[in-house]
Automatic annotation (TrEMBL):
Coiled-coil segments on the chain, per record: none
PROSITE patterns: FBOX (PS50181)
One Pfam match: F-box
Protein name: F-box domain-containing protein
InterPro entries hit by this protein: F-box_dom, F-box_Sdz-33
Residues of the F-box domain: 6-52
Length: 332
């Protein structure tokens, strides 16, 4: 059987080429751009890349993912030092999503990963990183060089997720270095075990979401510096007296003016009223009163019965309630 003649994609009119490109997986677009200088030039002329998001994953491996908005299509390059994995492709999915993973062998996976990431940024004309997922104790010897590389090549990170594998590992210095050198613009998920109360990091302002899983190191001074829309502080050690001072400052519009939702560990609502709100004007709302209040990010609401209200000087109300074993403060 004769092989079909090659299809001259690059000789088509521009609009026809763009339609062909739209039908390709993002990784196929990157691969096509590598064929020749002309292929690269044509690839960079496409105008639909705004729907693509670039994500980096740094844990047991090094990944570069290109996600397509609204279609839940994820195409990921995974750098590997295992030559047997080179070129392997994994694909899985369901009715509403597709995941494709391509393994790329390298004797120096970190440096080649950096170069490939720069190339993807250039082809897709991106200056921001949609997601950075990094486990800080997996590539300890390379953390600083990776952070410096990202600082030079991306203007900001939309969502940053920080993890560590082993609780006993000290990751504080590298965590502070990352957060002091990269601009996180939207969401920060902090899953690190910080042992030092003087952890040298200033919390970014105006985040849409700040999630700190182990927040024992978040004291009162840091609490009043936070100015994010959605805040979760798990296992915090802030005293009842300090919470009372914080709420008085919030009511006077002296702190956390952008706060829409605060999530804490479960606690008894009546005990909170008696201890924290004892000298703060408040209103106990009848349990028969139902209101749709913000309960999760991003501004997801749920029907809440009753609660306890306090009022800010500009008329904004904060309602305290317990739902699904979660103690919440919802601003409306």
């Amino acid at each position: 059987m004769d092989l079909p003649n090659p299809f001259p994609i690059l000789r088509l009119p521009y609009l026809a080429i763009e339609e062909v490109f739209k039908s390709l997986h993002p990784i196929e677009i990157i691969n096509l751009s590598l064929i020749s200088k002309r292929a690269k030039a044509v690839t960079k002329q496409m105008t639909f890349y705004s729907k693509y998001d670039i994500c980096l994953r740094i844990d047991e491996g090094l990944g570069i993912a290109i996600r397509v908005e609204n279609k839940l299509v994820s195409c990921t390059y995974l750098m590997t030092s295992d030559e047997r994995m080179n070129g392997n492709v994994e694909e899985y999915g369901g009715n509403d999503y597709i995941v494709r993973r391509v393994y790329k062998y390298s004797k120096n996976p970190i440096e080649e990963w950096k170069q490939l990431f720069k190339y993807v940024l250039d082809i897709l004309k991106k200056q921001t990183l949609h997601l950075l997922f990094i486990t800080l104790d997996d590539f300890v010897d390379h953390n600083v060089s990776i952070i410096d590389f990202l600082r030079k090549n991306v203007k900001s990170v939309t969502e940053c997720q920080l993890y560590q594998d082993e609780v006993e590992n000290d990751v504080e210095e590298h965590a502070a270095y990352l957060l002091n050198n990269l601009k996180v613009s939207n969401e920060l998920h902090f899953h690190l075990n910080i042992k030092n109360d003087n952890f040298d990091w200033k919390i970014p302002k105006n985040l849409k979401e700040l999630y700190i899983h182990d927040s024992e190191w978040i004291g009162y001074e840091r609490l009043v510096e936070i100015d994010c829309e959605h805040v979760t502080l798990r296992d915090n050690q802030i005293t009842n007296e300090q919470w009372s001072l914080f709420l008085k400052k919030w009511m006077a519009m002296e702190t956390n003016q952008n706060l829409n939702y605060l999530r804490l560990d479960n606690r008894d609502l009546e005990e909170f009223r008696a201890i924290v709100l004892h000298d703060i004007p408040h209103e106990v709302v009848d349990k028969g009163v139902k209101r749709n209040l913000i309960f999760w990010f991003p501004d997801e609401t749920e029907e809440i019965n009753g609660g306890i209200d306090i009022r800010r000087i500009d008329g904004k109300i904060a309602t305290f309630f317990v739902q699904d074993n979660v103690f919440s403060m919802s601003v409306h």
